[in-house]
Design brief:
Blueprint (H helix, E strand, L loop, with lengths): L6 H13 L2 H7 L4 H15 L4 E4 L2 E4 L1 H25 L7 E7 L1 H6 L1 H11 L3 E7 L2 H9 L5 E5 L9 E9 L1 E5 L19 E3 L7 H11 L7 E3 L3 H9 L4 E5 H10 L3 E2 L9 E8 L6 H17 L4
Parallel strand pairs: 3-4, 3-5, 8-9, 8-10
Antiparallel strand pairs: 1-2, 5-12, 6-12, 7-10, 7-11
Length: 305
């Protein structure tokens, strides 16, 4: 490795890429804009390549910059994990894992997994983030998460990501008890009521769209697009809205009878749920312990492989 390359060079490059602005990156790293520009120029001179194109609209990666970005992110992430690990030596030592969980698995699996780990690996400390597929995969690619648990996304979102399938999950359409559609359930009628619909960047949206197209159902005109579990539960219980969401998000409410699943054939929406990590990284003890707890939890819940 060229000894002229310093951590500050990698930090500057990654932060400029993340913020898409020299000015915002400089503010984030508490540097002046000229200092940030100089640091980037030093890195480009050392590498003998232009990493970013500057323009009025901000900055954009060149082909060389896109290639180098993943390695820079991985290097900073590895250093961060090493520094975190040094803090863990001594009597308070703990294993640490940063987990991203899509809403369906956050609601259905994570409480059970936490109970399993409390028994089998009490030294493990998890940091859990939730959000959309695009958001969590972005954090994973930037080295801010160690694993992501959820549905496999579209091929373009999975570049550089390894995927280990755990089980299959369908999308469900749910309503409050006593909803008018329950008197005559018909998929073609869902547009008669407000619909809570998966947003564009969600992993389940292509599956839902495929179902509607196959059944000749138009996109509901009166819809709110979100995967927020809190909003979906409150809105569906208190109105005539029809909520389209992964089964795992509402499995408990369906079992308790506070929400009712509409009796439609949703087989076309079935998709794989699994564990995602950066393909270039080696496995770790933390990931193995987490994966084993997942497998035990899935077996206990009887989820289909």
């Amino acid at each position: 490795m060229d000894r002229r390359i310093k951590i500050r060079h990698l930090q500057a490059f990654v932060e400029i890429t993340r913020r898409k602005s020299l000015k915002r990156a400089a503010e984030r790293l508490l540097l002046t804009q000229p200092a940030m520009s100089r640091t980037l120029s030093e890195l480009e001179e050392i590498l003998g390549a232009t990493l970013l194109e500057r323009g009025r609209g901000g900055v954009a990666l060149t082909a060389q910059g896109e290639f180098f970005l993943g390695f820079a992110q991985a290097s900073l992430s590895a250093l961060e994990r090493g520094l975190d690990g040094m803090q863990g030596f001594g009597p308070e030592a703990r294993l640490r894992l940063r987990v991203g969980a899509l809403p369906s698995v956050a609601a259905r699996l994570m409480p059970e997994v936490m109970e399993d780990l409390a028994r089998t690996a009490p030294e493990m400390r998890l940091t859990i983030a939730d959000g959309s597929h695009a958001h969590l995969i972005g954090l994973l690619n930037r080295g801010e998460l160690d694993v992501v648990l959820g549905r496999m996304g579209e091929p373009e979102t999975m570049r550089g990501i390894s995927f280990t399938q755990l089980y299959l999950e369908e999308v469900a359409m749910v309503v409050r008890p006593g909803h008018p559609i329950l008197a005559d359930p018909d998929l073609r009628r869902i547009g008669e009521w407000p619909v809570i619909y998966p947003p564009e960047k969600s992993a389940i949206r292509p599956f839902v769209r495929r179902l509607l197209v196959a059944e000749g159902v138009a996109l509901p005109p009166d819809r709110v697009e979100t995967v927020s579990g809190d909003f979906g539960r409150a809105r569906t219980r208190g109105s005539d809205s029809i909520w389209i969401i992964s089964t795992g998000v509402v499995a408990r409410e369906i079992a308790e009878g506070t929400l009712v699943r509409l009796p439609f054939d949703m087989g076309i929406t079935r998709g794989p749920v699994g564990l995602m990590m950066r393909a270039a990284e080696d496995d770790t003890a933390e990931r193995r312990l987490f994966a084993q707890a997942l497998e035990r939890t899935i077996a206990r819940l009887g989820l289909a492989i």
